[in-house]
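Hi, here's the filled form for the chain we discussed.

Project: internal
Contact: R.S.
Residues: 134
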Amino acid sequence: MKYLGLVAAAIALITGSCSSNSNSGGVNNPSPLPAGTADINILGNLGKQSFSPNPASVAQGNMVAWTNTDSLTHRIAANDGSFDTGNIEPGTHSAALALTENGVNYHCTIHPTMVGSINASNGMPPPCNGPYCY
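And the returned structure, exactly as it came back:
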């Protein structure tokens, strides 16, 4: 019986340690984005409704970042391959990227039906060609 108590205490200690460290490193508390950065929210695997705003209006040369408000990991990439955010965990945001294109279409590489676009100076998304256009 006393071993059963030790096992239960060890399990409580281990699970308590895991839950108290789950937010360490700022995983669910992302650092602020640089001033003037356009923030696009990732809402979930909802096709064209996966991002807000969509399309986003961002002037060429300005910064843009994606904030993951969903419960799943996402990874945003330009359809033309000009950028890839890397994995964006729930509750965090991507690094701010400079928009060097005159608009760009993008998608989630983990959930390819998630599509979006950023309009630059002319207010229109660029023509979309390829498998990520819906």
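Let me know if anything looks off before we file it.
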